[in-house]
Amino acid sequence: MKPDRREQKVVDRFNRVLAGHDGVLEVVSIGASERRNGVSRDRTVLHDRVMPNPASFRDQTNWSDGYYELAIEVGSTDAAEIQAVLSAVWSAAGVQGSFAFNDREPHEQESVPCTVASLTEFGHLHGQVRLPTGQPAVCGCVAIRGGDDSSDWLDFYIPLGALDKAGIAYWDGRPFFRSAVMDDWLAVIGTETFEQAMFSLGVIGWEVSGCTDAATLAHKLPQERAIGYLLPHEGVLHYGAANI
Known about the structure:
- There is one protein chain.
- With about 240 residues, this protein is an alpha+beta fold.
- It has one domain (about 5-65, about 75-195).
- It has helices at about 5-15, 80-95, 115-120, 160-165, 180-195, 215; strands at about 30-35, 40-45, 50, 65-75, 95-100, 125-130, 135-145, 155-160, 200-205, 230-235, 235-240.
- An 8-stranded antiparallel sheet has the order 5-6-7-8-4-9-10-11. Strands 1-2-3 form a 3-stranded antiparallel sheet, with no helix packed on it.
- It is globular.
- The protein starts with a helix and ends with a strand.
- Residues about 15-50 have low confidence and may be disordered.
């Protein structure tokens, strides 16, 4: 999985967010494939050791333990507006592929269109994304549609199982997973998305979808924030990082 220009743009912008912070983690890995008894297995080799591969679809532990999300309140129930946000997220994150099933590798299945219709048919869309550490990992997206006049949500996520295998650091001693590195990276993706398709609210963290809404916030960022917020006001997107 080689970084393309879109991925490099996200990485460059992420590094600008971290300007003034030392020690951006770089992970050097070698993708490899082996066959045993006629079965293809993906692996990552690092210093002559076989390491867990957070980009493997078949390894179901990659999809475990819930989702670290950029959850977007679209601000509409119109399918065309949801599609605009979905396309913008996929592009901003530099996601590779769009697949219906997470129990077989991308090369073992046909891709599906990255559309709201596919989300409706399959429930989730799955792909691979390059994390801010440079390591590829599984990712996915799901639409949460209210079916009434309330706004729909679109959640872009990386499962904690994959993040754990990728060695993403998070804060211990708290009742939930939280990573400042992931927060800032997802905030950059959300900002890139907003530039292509405006939305009402973005929230960032572990299983955060629907925890609040734009109407409740009334254009004001909370002073104390257990999660990250992307809140538009008068056409400008404001990022409030988690601070407690």
